[in-house]
Amino acid sequence: MRIAAFLAAVATALLPAFPAQADVRIKDIATFEGVRENQLVGYGLVVGLNGTGDSLRNSPFTEKSIEAMLERLGVGNLSDDNIRTQNTAAVMVTAMLPPFARRGSPIDVVVSSLGDSTSLRGGTLIVTPLTGADGEVYAVAQGPIAVAGWAAQGVAASLVEGVPTVARIENGATVENEIPFELASLDTIRLSLRNPDFTTASRVAEAIQQKLGGNMARALDPGTVEVRLSGSGKGDVPEMMSVVENLMVEPDSIAKVVIDARSGTIVIGANVRIDRVAVSQGGLTVMVREDPEVSQPNPVTIGGTTVVVPRTTVGVEETETHFTILEGADVSLQRLVDALNAIGLTATQTISILQAIKAAGALHADLEII
Question: Which first-to-last residue range defines the signal peptide (predicted)?
Answer without folding.
Answer: 1-22
